[in-house]
Design a protein that fits this description.
Elements (H helix, E strand, L loop, with lengths): L1 H24 L20 E9 L7 E3 L5 E6 L6 E2 L4 E5 L2 H25 L4 H34 L6 H30 L3 H26 L2 E3 L4 E6 L6 E3 L2 E4 L4 E3 L2 E4 L5 E8 L12 E7 L5 E9 L4 E2 L14 E9 L12 E8 L1
Antiparallel strand pairs: 1-12, 1-17, 2-11, 3-5, 3-8, 4-7, 5-6, 7-11, 8-9, 9-10, 12-16, 13-14, 13-17, 14-16, 15-16
Helix pairs in contact: 2-5, 3-4
């Protein structure tokens, strides 16, 4: 009985193993695609990867970088918001630069005031003092001259009445009084002439230099407030209040690289598609006047006809989509730009990848 049970178990295990082998050997039916892959609508179409961007007559999206470094204190706009040219976008801490501007403003005003003081010379009160000093010198000269004349007559009448030393002292006093009058007169003429022209010109140059330094600092202060260079839509804000930005941009936490602080696009009714044609396919491109193109939005079966805009006539390494600047194979591409009007009810955004087929009319 025991042997029968063992034999039954062995046979059951062998049959189970054979059945499992059969079941697992049958290939599983692969799942169908989530959406239909893009198909070439042209007889000899050229396939290309494309990226949606704002439609402009030249260039791509508008990448905005600050011209100064600092910490963001306020962001005035939101993503997807339409702004006009000159609208405030964000403000950077300008406390140090503002203090510098105020200091240079005061210096320029002080220099201009000093120039006005030189140009206003002579001051009436100073001229009056100088004129009074001339009159005093004249009076002192008359007094000294009269004293000398009296002593000289007395000496001529009676030499023993005035000593020779006293007479010489009186004569010297008259000469000193005359010299003082000459000095006072020249000082009056100097005061009346006003500031020296070279002093005025030197002060003018100093005032101009300080005013230009003030204007330069004021222009730099304006750089701490970033404004929209043109009307458009705010596509992306790469930083936030309290973050540090520089002319290299803002640090992107996810890419671990520097990115534009703000990316703007046009608010035109059209969007653009920039296609990258592999260099080996460039000879197959039709002439510009015969180009037709159709794009498929990934994840949908929607096909949209594209209107040819221009070719960017410069073949460059294919780093636009992968951002790989060190590649083992130097695959080069030619950018071709098309435009389209987004269909109603379908969300299409700049930066979106699409599949494009380019053919001939």
């Amino acid at each position: 009985m025991r042997n029968k049970i063992i034999l039954f178990l062995v046979v059951s295990g062998v049959l189970g193993a054979l059945f499992s082998a059969y079941v697992y050997a049958v290939p599983a039916k692969p799942p169908g695609p989530v959406f239909a892959p893009p198909s070439d609508p042209f007889a000899k179409g050229v396939f290309a990867n494309g990226i949606v961007e704002s439609y402009q007559s030249h260039g791509e999206n508008t990448n905005i970088y600050p011209e100064v470094a600092g910490v963001i204190t306020r962001i005035w706009v939101a993503e997807s918001e339409h702004v006009d040219a000159g609208a405030l976008l964000l403000s950077i801490d300008d406390s140090v630069q503002r203090a510098t501007v105020e200091q240079q403003r005061a210096q320029a005003q002080a220099a201009r005031t000093a120039l006005a003081e030189l140009e206003a010379q002579p001051r009436p009160e100073v001229l009056d003092v100088s004129r009074a000093q001339v009159e005093q010198a004249k009076a002192s000269l008359k007094s000294a001259t009269d004293s000398y004349d009296k002593q000289k007559r007395s000496y001529e009448i009676a030499p023993e009445s005035v000593s020779k030393d006293t007479l010489d002292t009186a004569a010297n006093a008259a000469k000193i009084a005359q010299a003082n009058l000459d000095v006072a007169t020249r000082q009056y003429d100097l005061t009346k002439a006003g500031a020296w022209i070279y002093d005025v010109r030197n002060q003018e140059r100093q005032a101009e230099a300080l005013e230009r330094a003030f204007a330069s600092s004021s222009a730099l202060l304006a750089k701490y407030t970033i404004r929209a260079p043109s009307s458009g839509v705010v596509l992306s804000i790469q930083s936030t209040v309290g973050s540090y930005v520089s002319p290299q941009g803002a640090y992107n936490t996810y890419t671990e690289g520097m990115s534009p602080v703000i990316v703007m696009g046009t608010s035109d009714q059209f969007l653009a598609v920039r296609c990258y044609i592999d260099e080996i396919l460039i000879p197959r491109l039709p002439p510009p006047d015969r180009i037709r193109a159709e794009m498929t939005i990934r994840g949908t079966s929607t096909k949209i006809s594209l209107a040819y805009v221009r070719v960017q006539p410069y073949v460059s390494p294919k780093i636009q989509l992968s951002d790989e600047r060190q590649e083992r194979v130097d695959l080069r591409v030619l950018p071709v730009v098309f435009r389209f009007a987004p269909p109603p009810g379908l969300a299409v955004f700049p930066g979106q990848l699409v599949d494009v087929f380019i053919g001939e009319k």
